[in-house]
Amino acid sequence: MIATEKKTLGTTILDRIGNTPLVRLDRLTEHLPGIQIVGKAEWANPGGSVKDRAASSIVTDAMKRGLLGNGRGLLDATSGNTGIAYAMLGAALRFPVTLCMPSNVSQERKRYLNAYGAEVIWTNPADGSDGAIRKAREIVAAEPDRYYYADQYSNDENWKAHYRTTANEIWKQTEGQVTHFVAALGTSGTFMGTTRRLKELNPRIQCVSMQPDSPFNGLEGLKHMATAIVPRIYDPNLADMNIEMATERAYKMAKFLGRNQGVLVGVSAAAATAAALQIAEEEAANGREAVIVTILCDGAEKYMSERFWTED
After folding, report:
1. CATH architecture of 14-49+163-310
2. What is the residue extent of each domain of the chain?
3. Which residues are catalytic?
4. In the CATH scheme, what is the code of domain 51-149?
5. Mean pLDDT split into 10-residue runs, the chain, 312 residues
6. 238: how many CB neighbours lie within 10 A of its CB?
7. What are the residue ranges of helices labelled H in the chain?
8. Helices 51-64 and 189-201, interaxial angle, to 10°?
9. pTM above threshold 0.85
């Protein structure tokens, strides 16, 4: 019998990251002729969020440079989604993952991390993501040879992931008709990378950043830049406009999308959608047409234990 070569079937985790669909949010713009809002459905990534893009880029780069693997684990600070992405990749690619994270993240996030087998060092919730950053720096300073410190807030592979993928997908999916891009600021990688590439493709595209309106907010994963440790990769000069978002507006939008659009998104995604609607109403008031793209950074499955869903 002649041996035949077996065909490799299926895809890897890395292959499944990116190329997420655009979802029309028509209920938001029914009263706004000539205006479209579409959301990039990043929950379609295997780890369930936009952070799969940056995490895979950071991990792939580190492994190519011999900084990760062969017993050396990854260490980083995270508010949740990047940590889940790291944990997923660590399980798939066989490297240990240690995460520093505020202890008040949702129970769902904690369960995901446990399921993937990540080690988590919990930090004071009052210190937010900045407290997690300080703890990660302390750990790597004490044992520099044990860890590859991914440092998503300073790692250029974070924004480059979106420069290479997210922006080009948006351009192709809208057939170059995008007029506005709206994204939330956490590490700022999504906004920085996507904006840089979209501006190259069409300098007239208006790129709008969104952040919480105060340091004490319920927009998990986002930074109030005026009071936070500012990520090294953040460039405030890239945004054509910045919108500050109240937590209650985001909660209201999350419930609206679920009950009127059939789309369940996380709180930060709802906040970005509320910012997109603000831009839409301004454009309509000035008699302009617009195609506004926002990033729906994750779905609602990691937030269903939050009380706001049942509150009036």
Report:
1. 3-Layer(aba) Sandwich (3.40)
2. 14-49+163-310, 51-149
3. 51, 268
4. 3.40.50.1100
5. 68 94 97 97 98 98 93 93 97 96 91 96 91 95 95 97 98 98 97 98 98 91 92 97 97 97 97 98 98 97 91 77
6. 15
7. 51-64, 81-93, 107-116, 128-142, 156-161, 167-173, 189-201, 247-256, 267-285
8. 90
9. yes
